[in-house]
Write a structure and sequence with these properties.
Blueprint (H helix, E strand, L loop, with lengths): L1 H20 L3 H11 L4 H25 L5 H23 L3 H26 L12 H18 L3 H12 L4 H26 L7 H21 L5 H22 L7 H42 L1 H8 L3
Protein backbone atom coordinates (compact mmCIF):
# COMPACT_ATOMS: atom_id res chain seq x y z
CA UNK A 1 0.00 0.00 0.00
CA UNK A 2 2.85 2.37 0.85
CA UNK A 3 4.41 1.72 -2.58
CA UNK A 4 1.13 2.55 -4.33
CA UNK A 5 0.77 5.81 -2.41
CA UNK A 6 4.36 6.73 -3.29
CA UNK A 7 3.71 5.99 -6.97
CA UNK A 8 0.59 8.14 -6.87
CA UNK A 9 2.64 11.03 -5.49
CA UNK A 10 5.27 10.40 -8.18
CA UNK A 11 2.55 10.60 -10.83
CA UNK A 12 1.21 13.83 -9.34
CA UNK A 13 4.65 15.46 -9.11
CA UNK A 14 5.69 14.27 -12.57
CA UNK A 15 2.52 15.67 -14.16
CA UNK A 16 2.95 19.01 -12.38
CA UNK A 17 6.40 19.21 -13.95
CA UNK A 18 5.28 17.95 -17.36
CA UNK A 19 2.24 20.18 -17.60
CA UNK A 20 4.27 23.22 -16.55
CA UNK A 21 7.39 22.51 -18.60
CA UNK A 22 6.08 20.45 -21.53
CA UNK A 23 8.31 17.51 -20.66
CA UNK A 24 9.52 15.02 -18.06
CA UNK A 25 6.43 13.02 -16.98
CA UNK A 26 7.69 9.88 -18.71
CA UNK A 27 11.36 10.52 -18.00
CA UNK A 28 10.71 11.18 -14.30
CA UNK A 29 8.28 8.29 -13.76
CA UNK A 30 10.32 5.75 -15.73
CA UNK A 31 13.50 6.76 -13.94
CA UNK A 32 11.88 6.04 -10.57
CA UNK A 33 10.35 2.74 -11.75
CA UNK A 34 13.77 1.59 -12.94
CA UNK A 35 15.25 2.64 -9.60
CA UNK A 36 12.92 0.22 -7.75
CA UNK A 37 13.86 -2.67 -10.04
CA UNK A 38 11.17 -2.71 -12.75
CA UNK A 39 12.46 -4.07 -16.06
CA UNK A 40 12.86 -1.54 -18.86
CA UNK A 41 10.03 -2.59 -21.20
CA UNK A 42 7.53 -3.03 -18.34
CA UNK A 43 8.49 0.36 -16.87
CA UNK A 44 7.96 2.15 -20.18
CA UNK A 45 4.73 0.23 -20.81
CA UNK A 46 3.39 1.12 -17.34
CA UNK A 47 4.16 4.81 -17.83
CA UNK A 48 2.67 4.96 -21.33
CA UNK A 49 -0.55 3.25 -20.28
CA UNK A 50 -0.89 5.79 -17.47
CA UNK A 51 -0.11 8.57 -19.94
CA UNK A 52 -3.18 7.73 -22.03
CA UNK A 53 -5.24 9.21 -19.21
CA UNK A 54 -2.83 11.90 -18.02
CA UNK A 55 -2.17 13.29 -21.50
CA UNK A 56 -5.90 13.39 -22.25
CA UNK A 57 -6.55 15.29 -19.01
CA UNK A 58 -3.55 17.54 -19.59
CA UNK A 59 -4.50 18.27 -23.21
CA UNK A 60 -8.06 19.18 -22.26
CA UNK A 61 -6.84 21.38 -19.42
CA UNK A 62 -4.40 23.21 -21.68
CA UNK A 63 -7.15 23.61 -24.30
CA UNK A 64 -9.45 25.22 -21.71
CA UNK A 65 -6.70 27.69 -20.80
CA UNK A 66 -6.05 28.48 -24.49
CA UNK A 67 -2.62 26.83 -24.58
CA UNK A 68 -3.07 24.50 -27.62
CA UNK A 69 -2.35 25.04 -31.34
CA UNK A 70 -4.29 22.20 -32.97
CA UNK A 71 -2.43 22.53 -36.31
CA UNK A 72 0.82 21.75 -34.51
CA UNK A 73 -0.87 18.84 -32.68
CA UNK A 74 -1.95 17.24 -35.96
CA UNK A 75 1.37 17.77 -37.77
CA UNK A 76 3.56 16.34 -34.99
CA UNK A 77 1.21 13.90 -33.23
CA UNK A 78 0.52 11.45 -36.07
CA UNK A 79 4.21 10.92 -37.03
CA UNK A 80 4.95 10.77 -33.31
CA UNK A 81 2.50 7.90 -32.89
CA UNK A 82 4.20 5.96 -35.70
CA UNK A 83 7.62 6.49 -34.12
CA UNK A 84 6.33 5.47 -30.68
CA UNK A 85 4.87 2.17 -31.93
CA UNK A 86 8.18 1.35 -33.65
CA UNK A 87 10.15 2.24 -30.53
CA UNK A 88 7.93 0.13 -28.27
CA UNK A 89 8.29 -2.98 -30.40
CA UNK A 90 12.06 -2.44 -30.63
CA UNK A 91 12.47 -2.13 -26.83
CA UNK A 92 10.26 -5.18 -26.27
CA UNK A 93 12.65 -7.29 -28.35
CA UNK A 94 15.68 -6.52 -26.12
CA UNK A 95 16.68 -8.59 -23.10
CA UNK A 96 16.27 -7.00 -19.66
CA UNK A 97 20.04 -6.96 -19.06
CA UNK A 98 20.64 -5.01 -22.26
CA UNK A 99 17.56 -2.78 -22.11
CA UNK A 100 17.99 -1.33 -18.59
CA UNK A 101 21.42 0.31 -19.13
CA UNK A 102 20.42 1.49 -22.61
CA UNK A 103 17.31 3.14 -21.19
CA UNK A 104 19.33 4.74 -18.39
CA UNK A 105 21.78 6.18 -20.94
CA UNK A 106 18.87 7.64 -22.95
CA UNK A 107 17.29 9.08 -19.81
CA UNK A 108 20.63 10.46 -18.61
CA UNK A 109 21.17 12.16 -21.98
CA UNK A 110 17.69 13.68 -21.87
CA UNK A 111 18.24 14.86 -18.30
CA UNK A 112 21.53 16.51 -19.26
CA UNK A 113 19.86 18.16 -22.23
CA UNK A 114 17.06 19.54 -20.04
CA UNK A 115 19.52 20.83 -17.44
CA UNK A 116 21.83 22.51 -19.97
CA UNK A 117 19.05 23.83 -22.18
CA UNK A 118 17.10 25.58 -19.44
CA UNK A 119 20.03 26.63 -17.27
CA UNK A 120 22.17 28.12 -20.02
CA UNK A 121 19.62 29.39 -22.51
CA UNK A 122 16.19 29.71 -20.92
CA UNK A 123 13.32 30.10 -23.39
CA UNK A 124 13.81 31.68 -26.85
CA UNK A 125 11.12 34.16 -27.86
CA UNK A 126 12.10 35.31 -31.37
CA UNK A 127 10.15 34.64 -34.60
CA UNK A 128 6.76 34.63 -32.84
CA UNK A 129 3.84 34.29 -35.27
CA UNK A 130 5.70 32.53 -38.09
CA UNK A 131 4.15 29.18 -39.19
CA UNK A 132 5.66 25.82 -38.25
CA UNK A 133 5.90 23.66 -41.37
CA UNK A 134 5.04 20.00 -41.67
CA UNK A 135 8.48 19.20 -43.12
CA UNK A 136 9.92 20.29 -39.76
CA UNK A 137 7.26 18.85 -37.44
CA UNK A 138 6.80 15.42 -39.09
CA UNK A 139 10.45 14.21 -38.79
CA UNK A 140 10.63 15.76 -35.32
CA UNK A 141 7.54 13.82 -34.25
CA UNK A 142 8.86 10.56 -35.69
CA UNK A 143 12.18 10.83 -33.83
CA UNK A 144 10.62 12.09 -30.60
CA UNK A 145 8.05 9.28 -30.60
CA UNK A 146 10.72 6.60 -31.09
CA UNK A 147 12.91 8.05 -28.33
CA UNK A 148 9.88 8.37 -26.05
CA UNK A 149 9.00 4.68 -26.27
CA UNK A 150 12.55 3.31 -26.09
CA UNK A 151 13.59 5.65 -23.26
CA UNK A 152 10.36 5.54 -21.27
CA UNK A 153 10.10 9.26 -21.93
CA UNK A 154 11.44 11.78 -24.40
CA UNK A 155 8.46 13.19 -26.28
CA UNK A 156 8.69 16.45 -24.33
CA UNK A 157 12.49 16.66 -23.96
CA UNK A 158 12.93 16.20 -27.72
CA UNK A 159 9.83 18.00 -29.03
CA UNK A 160 9.42 20.94 -26.67
CA UNK A 161 12.94 22.45 -26.93
CA UNK A 162 12.99 21.98 -30.72
CA UNK A 163 9.75 23.94 -31.16
CA UNK A 164 10.73 26.48 -28.50
CA UNK A 165 14.01 27.02 -30.35
CA UNK A 166 12.09 28.03 -33.46
CA UNK A 167 10.51 30.85 -31.45
CA UNK A 168 7.45 30.78 -33.69
CA UNK A 169 4.69 30.20 -31.16
CA UNK A 170 4.44 31.34 -27.52
CA UNK A 171 6.04 29.02 -24.93
CA UNK A 172 2.70 28.25 -23.27
CA UNK A 173 1.29 27.07 -26.63
CA UNK A 174 4.38 24.96 -27.28
CA UNK A 175 3.87 23.22 -23.93
CA UNK A 176 0.12 22.83 -24.38
CA UNK A 177 0.44 21.47 -27.93
CA UNK A 178 3.16 18.99 -26.99
CA UNK A 179 1.08 17.74 -24.05
CA UNK A 180 -2.04 17.39 -26.20
CA UNK A 181 -0.26 15.53 -29.03
CA UNK A 182 1.33 13.16 -26.53
CA UNK A 183 -2.08 11.48 -26.16
CA UNK A 184 -1.60 9.93 -29.62
CA UNK A 185 1.95 8.91 -28.76
CA UNK A 186 0.86 7.25 -25.52
CA UNK A 187 -1.82 5.18 -27.28
CA UNK A 188 0.58 4.01 -30.00
CA UNK A 189 3.39 3.16 -27.57
CA UNK A 190 1.00 1.26 -25.30
CA UNK A 191 -0.27 -0.76 -28.26
CA UNK A 192 3.31 -1.57 -29.25
CA UNK A 193 4.18 -2.79 -25.73
CA UNK A 194 1.01 -4.89 -25.44
CA UNK A 195 1.95 -6.57 -28.74
CA UNK A 196 5.60 -6.95 -27.73
CA UNK A 197 5.50 -8.05 -24.06
CA UNK A 198 1.82 -8.77 -23.38
CA UNK A 199 -0.31 -7.53 -20.49
CA UNK A 200 0.92 -10.13 -17.98
CA UNK A 201 4.19 -8.20 -17.47
CA UNK A 202 2.39 -4.97 -16.53
CA UNK A 203 1.16 -4.13 -13.02
CA UNK A 204 -2.14 -2.35 -13.66
CA UNK A 205 -2.38 -1.19 -10.04
CA UNK A 206 0.80 0.83 -10.68
CA UNK A 207 -0.73 2.15 -13.91
CA UNK A 208 -3.83 3.21 -11.98
CA UNK A 209 -2.09 5.16 -9.23
CA UNK A 210 0.28 6.90 -11.68
CA UNK A 211 -2.79 7.82 -13.73
CA UNK A 212 -4.71 9.10 -10.70
CA UNK A 213 -1.84 11.30 -9.55
CA UNK A 214 -1.37 12.69 -13.05
CA UNK A 215 -5.06 13.43 -13.59
CA UNK A 216 -5.26 15.33 -10.29
CA UNK A 217 -2.20 17.41 -11.23
CA UNK A 218 -3.14 18.14 -14.88
CA UNK A 219 -5.44 21.17 -14.41
CA UNK A 220 -3.12 22.62 -11.76
CA UNK A 221 -0.15 22.34 -14.13
CA UNK A 222 -2.08 23.96 -17.00
CA UNK A 223 -2.68 26.94 -14.74
CA UNK A 224 0.90 26.99 -13.41
CA UNK A 225 2.37 27.18 -16.92
CA UNK A 226 1.27 30.84 -17.00
CA UNK A 227 3.05 31.64 -13.72
CA UNK A 228 5.95 29.28 -12.91
CA UNK A 229 9.47 30.12 -14.17
CA UNK A 230 10.27 27.31 -16.66
CA UNK A 231 14.00 28.07 -16.54
CA UNK A 232 14.24 27.26 -12.82
CA UNK A 233 11.98 24.22 -13.06
CA UNK A 234 13.96 22.83 -16.00
CA UNK A 235 17.22 23.06 -14.05
CA UNK A 236 15.67 21.34 -11.03
CA UNK A 237 14.12 18.47 -12.99
CA UNK A 238 17.22 17.92 -15.13
CA UNK A 239 19.31 17.43 -11.99
CA UNK A 240 16.92 14.83 -10.54
CA UNK A 241 16.98 12.82 -13.77
CA UNK A 242 20.78 12.95 -14.06
CA UNK A 243 21.38 11.93 -10.45
CA UNK A 244 18.97 8.99 -10.54
CA UNK A 245 20.20 7.55 -13.82
CA UNK A 246 23.89 7.97 -12.96
CA UNK A 247 23.09 5.91 -9.86
CA UNK A 248 21.51 3.18 -12.01
CA UNK A 249 24.46 3.09 -14.41
CA UNK A 250 27.13 3.07 -11.70
CA UNK A 251 25.44 0.11 -10.03
CA UNK A 252 24.89 -1.80 -13.29
CA UNK A 253 26.97 -4.76 -14.46
CA UNK A 254 28.33 -2.52 -17.22
CA UNK A 255 30.25 -0.37 -14.72
CA UNK A 256 29.99 -1.84 -11.21
CA UNK A 257 31.59 1.22 -9.57
CA UNK A 258 32.88 1.03 -6.00
CA UNK A 259 31.15 2.84 -3.15
CA UNK A 260 33.79 5.56 -3.08
CA UNK A 261 33.45 6.27 -6.80
CA UNK A 262 29.67 6.40 -6.47
CA UNK A 263 29.84 8.85 -3.55
CA UNK A 264 32.25 11.12 -5.42
CA UNK A 265 30.01 11.09 -8.51
CA UNK A 266 26.88 11.91 -6.48
CA UNK A 267 28.67 14.78 -4.71
CA UNK A 268 29.90 16.25 -8.00
CA UNK A 269 26.42 16.04 -9.53
CA UNK A 270 24.84 17.61 -6.43
CA UNK A 271 27.25 20.56 -6.55
CA UNK A 272 26.59 21.07 -10.28
CA UNK A 273 22.85 20.77 -9.71
CA UNK A 274 22.71 23.37 -6.93
CA UNK A 275 24.92 25.74 -8.96
CA UNK A 276 22.63 25.32 -12.00
CA UNK A 277 19.50 26.16 -10.01
CA UNK A 278 21.21 29.20 -8.45
CA UNK A 279 22.36 30.40 -11.88
CA UNK A 280 18.88 29.92 -13.37
CA UNK A 281 17.33 31.85 -10.50
CA UNK A 282 19.81 34.71 -10.95
CA UNK A 283 19.25 34.86 -14.72
CA UNK A 284 15.47 34.71 -14.28
CA UNK A 285 15.58 37.68 -11.90
CA UNK A 286 17.89 39.56 -14.28
CA UNK A 287 15.51 38.94 -17.20
CA UNK A 288 12.56 40.16 -15.12
CA UNK A 289 14.47 43.31 -14.14
CA UNK A 290 15.39 43.95 -17.79
CA UNK A 291 11.77 43.49 -18.88
CA UNK A 292 10.70 45.96 -16.20
CA UNK A 293 13.25 48.53 -17.32
CA UNK A 294 12.32 48.10 -20.99
CA UNK A 295 8.67 48.59 -20.12
CA UNK A 296 9.42 51.81 -18.22
CA UNK A 297 11.60 53.07 -21.07
CA UNK A 298 8.89 52.37 -23.65
CA UNK A 299 6.28 54.21 -21.59
CA UNK A 300 8.19 57.06 -19.93
CA UNK A 301 11.48 57.35 -21.85
CA UNK A 302 15.18 56.49 -21.28
CA UNK A 303 15.63 58.89 -18.36
CA UNK A 304 12.97 57.16 -16.27
CA UNK A 305 14.53 53.79 -17.09
CA UNK A 306 17.94 55.00 -15.92
CA UNK A 307 16.41 56.20 -12.65
CA UNK A 308 14.79 52.78 -12.17
CA UNK A 309 18.15 51.01 -12.60
CA UNK A 310 19.96 53.39 -10.24
CA UNK A 311 20.03 52.53 -6.53
CA UNK A 312 17.83 54.68 -4.31
Amino acid sequence: MRALILLGLVGLAAQLVDGSLGMAYGVTSTTLLLAVGTNAAAASATVHLAEIGTTLASGLSHWRFGNVDWKVVAKIGIPGAAGAFAGATFLSSLSTEVAAPIMSIILLSLGAYILIRFTAFGLPRGNLGKPLRKRFLAPLGLVAGFVDATGGGGWGPVGTPAILASGRIPPRKVIGSIDASEFLVAIAASAGFLVGIGSENIDFAWVGVLLLGGVIAAPIAAWLVRHIPPRILGSAVGGVIILTNVRTLLRSDWIGASGGVQAAAYLAIAVLWVASIAYSLREYRRDKDNESVEGIEAEFGPRAAEEEKSPA
